[in-house]
């Protein structure tokens, strides 16, 4: 989630950046969400893009550094031959 500020500057709220469809800056920055909701925010277009980029980088970094435990082994692949006897 990214934290942004309502245009009036009194309230901060979190937005799921995966649900942002478009960001307009005409002149106020408006987030248009996938469901059609619109949020007018105080952050600039460039700052909002920076927040989304930092969020995605953090998620990728966490995924790469996650402790995978036993799942870190590479799978063993081999050829599977069909049975000779179809009655089995």
TrEMBL record:
Keywords: Cell projection, Cilium, Flagellum. InterPro entries: SwrD-like. It holds the Pfam family FlbD. This is Flagellar FlbD family protein. It comes from Arthrobacter crystallopoietes BAB-32.
């Amino acid at each position: 989630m990214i934290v942004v500020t309502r245009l009036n500057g009194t309230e901060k709220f979190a937005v799921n950046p995966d649900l942002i469809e478009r960001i307009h800056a005409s002149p106020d920055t408006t987030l248009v969400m996938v469901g059609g909701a619109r949020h007018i925010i105080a952050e600039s277009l460039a700052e909002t893009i920076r927040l989304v980029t930092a969020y995605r980088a953090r998620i990728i970094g966490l995924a790469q550094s996650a402790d995978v435990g036993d799942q870190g082994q590479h799978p063993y692949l081999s050829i599977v031959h069909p049975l000779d006897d179809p009655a089995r």
